[in-house]
Amino acid sequence: MRIIVVCGAGASSTFIAHRIRRAAADRGLSVRAQASSASGLDEILQGADVLLVGEHLAEQLVALRERAVAASVPIAILPSGASSAPDGEEALDLALATAGARS
């Protein structure tokens, strides 16, 4: 599974992607989580299984959703506090549920 995590500049998404990879490894799941800024999203969105968006990008959600739909990638908003969570369990669960919803 390939998960893209996007935030404004890409910094907090890097931490979330790292935590998702660690949580997936702990569960024995094959997951590739990548961070991206909103501006660099189109370059890596193709072939992704799910797009997770930081809640602080809610005002850009319509545009991000359009980009995700164009790439046939399901999208979900990360819960508040995801960037400060001690692990990536909740974000990983959200990604798995969102990706599973399209199948």
TrEMBL record:
Alphabetical list of Gene3D superfamilies matching this protein: 3.40.50.2300
Pfam families, alphabetized: PTS_IIB
Coiled coil: none
Bilayer-crossing regions: none
Domain PTS EIIB type-3 residues, every copy: 1-103
PROSITE patterns on file: PTS_EIIB_TYPE_3 (PS51100)
Signal peptide: none
Positions carrying Phosphocysteine: C7
Keywords for this protein: Kinase, Phosphoprotein, Phosphotransferase system, Sugar transport, Transferase, Transport
InterPro entries, alphabetized: PTS_EIIB-like_sf, PTS_EIIB_2/3, PTS_EIIB_3, PTS_sugar-specific_EIIB
Record PANTHER family: PTS SYSTEM N,N'-DIACETYLCHITOBIOSE-SPECIFIC EIIB COMPONENT
Protein name: PTS lactose transporter subunit IIB
Organism: Agromyces humatus
